[in-house]
Amino acid sequence: MQIALNRKSPMPLYTQLAQEIQQRIRSGALPTGARLPTIRALSQQLGVTRLTIHAAYNELQTGGWVESTVGRGTFVAEMPHSRISAVDLGLEMSAGGLISDMMRMAQLPGMRSLAVADGSAELYPQRDFARAIEEAMASGPTVFGYTTAQGDPTLRTVLAEYLLERGMSVTPDEVIITAGVTQGLALIAQTLAAPGDAVIVEQPTYLGALNIFGQRGLRLVGAPVDQDGLITDNLEALIVAHQPRFIYVIPAFQNPTGVCMSTERRMRLLAIAARHQIPIVEDDIYARVVFEGIAPPALYGMDQNHLVLNLGSFSKALMPGIRIGYLVAPPAFIPRLARAKQANDLCSPPLMQRAMAAFIQHGWLTNHLRRALPRYRERRDALLTAMSRYFPLGLNWTEPQGGFCVWVSLPHSINVTDLYLAGIDRGVAFTPGDAFFAGQAPRPYMRLAFSVASPETINDAVRILGDLLGTQAHRRIVMREAPSDCLPLV
Predict the structure, then answer these.
(1) CA angle, residues 341, 266, 259, in degrees to nearest 5
(2) Less Cβ crowding at N or C end of the chain, within 10 Å?
């Protein structure tokens, strides 16, 4: 195998090697049953230690990519996705069911996943974060004990300064550390509403929010989104009719559409909320993932009536597994939310909180984003280019300037569940659009996430999806002629 390792990269050599072999297995260059070079031969060829090769092969074996037999060697394993059928996936096309599917498929060797909107593992700043953890450990034994439910004071102080870039002037006492945005949403649902209460959500909106609110027994009222974000024209009518406990929005690079709420819509939303004294829950998780220009300022910083609660996390901009997020709220909300946090898990891990504070303070987060954002932009561009090349004419999709998601409008003739299962059968995963709606979706949609896959994998996946779309919709879509009915954005 001709493999070039980058010895100047912060990524360990064994990780580079493992990822290169994974890519060749995905592409078919290394088919099932193919024998990999011996550890001795490959170490000599690449000029690295045998330990490096052994570590790479061990990682591949742990992930199910290869199988090793003493005395015979290391061979490419049968790809699990080839054994998956409709019986295994797609049984529950709800928010919770699809989240479960996405987590399972993300672990399957050979699966080309455009389903998960997470940071890419190959871009994780492992070395710098390890340094941050070492510094946190050296700060004393307190990081191995409990801290307050509201969170480590050092991290809350660092975050108060960090959030100035989002136009938010807050004190550390207005910040609660959470296990990602997910826990923040759960605390808000528990504190601000009771089972049976109504909440207004964007239509479509984040799968995880729908799952959390649904599990809480809240009544979801959808308000539509277009290219300028939440449509506010009929918002007051919805408020009068349903008396919601809060309004949940994603103003910056919305998931799943990728659109941003316009300044005019932001001002109208804040004015409506003030008239009716309804809290706004602002999910700001994608605000740091910007490819062109800058993200619009946070609603929290524009609010003069102390009604906005802001949620953020480092799951997208950094690494999801550290499970560090934050909830910023006006002082009147903090005591109830802190009590709910304490009842939920007592406190978030002090060691990870202190490490996150060090990571930000040393500028390592800024450096990471400077390196990672161009790579994410490259993947977005690869997705948009591949869609223009392989998708049938007449389909519409968003072109986000940030975030990880592209939203595709499909013709009415498409059965998105059949498309989903057909994609899985061919080793391609995406997220069907129906589950992003609180009610009935007006037409078929799909969300494509570009952050995890390489440009080459994205191109392969979109080509396969294009073939499947053309086959399923051949009666209404001609590859060289647009259909008579134009497809709306949402």
Answers:
(1) 85
(2) N
Amino acid identity for residue 41 in this structure: A
What sign results for the dihedral spanned by CA atoms 392, 393, 396, 400?
A: positive
SS3 224: strand
Distances 460 to 202, 325, 385, 429, 480 between C-alpha atoms, Å:
32, 34, 12, 12, 21
* Mean pLDDT along residues 224-250: 97
- Lookup result for tokens 């027994």: 217
Per-residue confidence at 153, pLDDT binned at 50, 70, 90?
Answer: very high
If 0-12 CB within 10 Å is exposed, 13-18 middle and 19+ buried, where does residue 238 land? middle
Tell whether the model's pLDDT for residue 222 goes beyond 70.
yes
Q: How far apart are CA 194 and CA 184, in angstroms?
A: 16
Residues 6+ apart with CB under 8 A from 209: 185, 201, 248, 283
Q: How far apart are CA 171 and CA 169, in angstroms?
A: 7
Taking only the tens place, the pLDDT of each residue in 448-477 is 999 999 999 999 999 999 999 988 755 444
Q: Enter the pTM of the model.
A: 0.80
Helix or strand holding residue 198 (H, E):
strand 198-203
